[in-house]
Amino acid sequence: MEETPTGTPVGVDDPYEHAGLCDHLTDDGRCRFALTRAGDDPEFSAARRAADYDCVAAEEDRQFRDCPHYRSTTDGRECVRCGLEAVRIAHDDSRPLLEEHHLSYGGGGDGVGRADPDANGSGGADEPSHEITVALCRWCHAKIHRSFARIDDGVEPDPEAFAAREERRAKEASEFGFSTARERRESDGS
């Protein structure tokens, strides 16, 4: 199983099995990295410019993992392990129910992968070459890092997670309630 730089498990054997589309991919199939950050990697940007800025994965027999700047980060809407949905309360500083969980880290610590083209973007065993993240609830996140729990385990939300989500939903529903000024004044005893 893959591990973090500190040696804790990440819950998968191959992060690319759980990765999605590249964060740099535009709606029309072009590489946003090459379009907006050409100075960060001039050689890569020049190659993309020569290919009309098409994504590396658009080339024949190529995949996202073949791109040195591939990155797939989560939208954070639900836990990929147990399915717990995110409930955020505006102007509330409480800890989120879902957290970003790294399956793989970008090389060099700058969040930008530096893949070896001969290694098909897999990087070294000690330094994965692409940043790949998924959303996990706090409870699943802890289980993955503290044991051999896996991302693809078919589990139900932890009872504490379910209770925390329902508490937030109740708070959210109470904020949607409408009361007239007269009702508020009467409830205040005025």
UniProtKB/TrEMBL annotation:
Region feature Disordered, mapped onto this chain: 106-127, 152-190
Protein's name in the database: HNH endonuclease
Q: Where is the composition biased (Basic and acidic residues)?
A: 163-174, 181-190
Organism of origin:
Halobellus rarus
What superkingdom does the record give? Archaea
Output the InterPro entries linked to this UniProt entry: DUF7097
